Amino acid sequence: MTITTKPSVFKNEPFTDFTVEANKVAMEKALEKVKGKLGGTYPISIGSETIDTGDYIVSINPGSKDDVIGRVSKGTTALAEQAMQQALTTFEMWKNVSPAERADYLFKAADLMRQRKHEFSAMLVYEVGKNWAEADADTAEAIDFMEFYAREMLRLSKTHINQPLTPVDGEKTRMAYIPLGVGVIISPFNFPLAIMAGTTVAAIVSGNTVILKPADSAPVIAAKFVELMKEVGLPEGVLNFVPGDGIEVGEYLVEHPKTRFVSFTGSREVGCRIYERASKVQSGQIWLKRVIAEMGGKDGIVVDETADLDAAADGIVAAAFGFQGQKCSAGSRAIIVESVYDEVVEKVVERTKKLSIGLPEENHAVGPVIDQKAYNKILSYIETGKGEGTLLTGGGPAEGNGFYIEPTVFGDVSPQARIMKEEIFGPVLAMAKAADWKEAIEIYNDTDYGLTGGFFSRDENRISTALNEMHCGNLYINKKCTGALVGVHPFGGFNMSGTDSKAGGYDYLLLFTQGKMTARKI
Ligand SMILES: NC(=O)c1ccc[n+]([C@@H]2O[C@H](COP(=O)([O-])OP(=O)(O)OC[C@H]3O[C@@H](n4cnc5c(N)ncnc54)[C@H](O)[C@@H]3O)[C@@H](O)[C@H]2O)c1
Ligand SMILES: N[C@@H](CCC=O)C(=O)O
C-alpha cells in the first residue's frame, strides 16, 4: 500500500464557526442529506462477512421520538463467538503489519471523515440529540484521535519498539512493546463517535484486533464509522462489529477466555461489574485480562471571592448544561464561597433561564436527554433535589415530542445531599455554599469520583494550593471543566472515575501493549 505522508506535528481539528454563513449553510445541507437517508438497516460485520440478523436494535431520535434513525442488526452470543474466532485469526497477521502501515489506515480514515465532517455531525444531531457545536466537537475529536494515535504509533515505533536500555558489557539488550491480542471495545452513548472511534483505533493501531460493541442508543453512528474504516481498506477481521445487549454480547466477550483486554467507557456501575467479571480466570485462559475502564464523574467547580464572577458563571453554566449535562466531565456541582454566593447564584440562574430548549437540528442550546430511562431517572433526581435544596429554576419536563427536561438549578444544597454525591447525568446543577475557599476545596474533594474540576480565583497562592489539593484527573483553572482537547488535555479520572488512563495522552497507547525485554550475549 502507499503510505500517506503527514506532517509529524499533531494539530487539533478546528471547530466549525457556525456564525459564518457558508458553514451554517453547509451544516443545513448535511442535515437535509442525512435526514433523507434515515431509517436504513445496518449489518453486523465480522471479517469479510456482513450479517443481517433480521432482529434489530431500533435507534430513535431522542428529540423527535417517532423518527427512526436506523435499524442495526442485533448480535447474539453465537455471533460474538464468531467475531472472537475471526479476531484471533486476524491477530496473527495484523500483529506483524508495520506500525507505519497500521498508522496509515488512521490517517486515511481521518482524511475521509474530515471530508464528510458535517454529515457525521448531522448524524450525531439526529441520533443522540447534540446541538451543532456539540456534534461538531464530537466529530472533530474523532478526527483528532485518529491523527494523534497514528502519530503516536509512529513515535513509539522509534522509541518503544526497539527501546535502548542501560548498556552492559557483553550483552545486546532491547525492549519492545508488542500488541496484546484480541480486545473488546465497549463504548457509551454520549460521545458515540469520538470515544467509540478513539478507543477502537488506539487498540488497532497498536497491533491488536478488536470486537466493537457500541452503545445500544447510538449504534448507527458506530455502523457509519465501521463503513468508513472498510472504505480506507482496513484489512477484514481487524475491526469486527457486533452491536447488541450489554449482557448478552458485552458480558459474553468480557468473560471470554481468549479476550486479552477490555476497553470500556461508561457508567461506574457497569464498569465495576466488568472489572469484576474480567478478573475471573476462565477455563483455558492463560493470562489476566487488562481492563481499561473510563467511568463516571461528579465534577465540580469552586469559586472564591477574588474570582471574575461573570467568567465563573459562564463556566458553571456551560459545564453543567452542555449536551444536557450528559458528559462524564459535566460540572454538576458548584461550590461557592459564602461572601459571593448570592451574586454567583443570581448570575448562574439568569444565564440558565436564557438557554433555549428545543430540537437539536434547530440548534438550540439544550436538547433532549438520550432516552426514556434517562428521562425518568433525571426527573426522579429532580424530585429528590426538591427535598434537598431550594429549586431556583427549571424543575421538570420541557415541551417537545422527545425527552426534554428543563435545565434545573438547586441552591443551598448540603454537601451530603444525594444530588451533590451521585452522578445524575442530566441537566441538573447543585450549588453549595462554603465558609471559605479551603472549605470549598474540602467539599469538592468529598466524593468517590475524581474526573474533572474547576477553580475560579485571581489569587495565585490559592491557585497553587488548588492545583495540588483538588484531587481529580483533569483540573481546569478559571475555565469550565468540560471540553478536553486530544493531545492538549489528556483525559481520564481518579478513584471511581476509572483506571487512571489518559485518553489522548502520550502514554495511552502503551496500555494496549506489553513490554518484552530481550538480552543477547555477545
Ligand atoms: N470517563 C470517561 O472518559 C467517560 C466518557 C464518557 C462517558 N462516561 C460515563 O459513561 C456513562 C454514560 O454512558 P452510558 O449510559 O452509555 O453508560 P453504560 O454504562 O450504561 O453503557 C456503556 C456501555 O456498556 C454496555 N454494557 C451495559 N451493561 C454491560 C455489561 N453488563 N457488560 C458489558 N457491557 C455492558 C452498554 O451496552 C454500553 O455499550 C456516564 O456514567 C459517564 O460519566 C465516562
Ligand atoms: N472528554 C470530554 C468528556 C467525555 C465524557 O463524557 C470532555 O472533556 O468534556
Automatic annotation (TrEMBL):
<comment type="pathway">
    <text>Amino-acid degradation; L-proline degradation into L-glutamate; L-glutamate from L-proline: step 2/2.</text>
</comment>
<dbReference type="InterPro" id="IPR016163">
    <property type="entry name" value="Ald_DH_C"/>
</dbReference>
<dbReference type="Pfam" id="PF00171">
    <property type="entry name" value="Aldedh"/>
</dbReference>
<dbReference type="InterPro" id="IPR050485">
    <property type="entry name" value="Proline_metab_enzyme"/>
</dbReference>
<keyword id="KW-0560">Oxidoreductase</keyword>
<dbReference type="GO" id="GO:0003842">
    <property type="term" value="F:L-glutamate gamma-semialdehyde dehydrogenase activity"/>
</dbReference>
<dbReference type="InterPro" id="IPR016160">
    <property type="entry name" value="Ald_DH_CS_CYS"/>
</dbReference>
<dbReference type="InterPro" id="IPR016162">
    <property type="entry name" value="Ald_DH_N"/>
</dbReference>
<dbReference type="InterPro" id="IPR015590">
    <property type="entry name" value="Aldehyde_DH_dom"/>
</dbReference>
<dbReference type="InterPro" id="IPR005932">
    <property type="entry name" value="RocA"/>
</dbReference>
<dbReference type="InterPro" id="IPR016161">
    <property type="entry name" value="Ald_DH/histidinol_DH"/>
</dbReference>
<protein>
    <recommendedName>
        <fullName>L-glutamate gamma-semialdehyde dehydrogenase</fullName>
        <ecNumber>1.2.1.88</ecNumber>
    </recommendedName>
</protein>
<keyword id="KW-0520">NAD</keyword>
<feature type="domain" description="Aldehyde dehydrogenase">
    <location>
        <begin position="56"/>
        <end position="516"/>
    </location>
</feature>
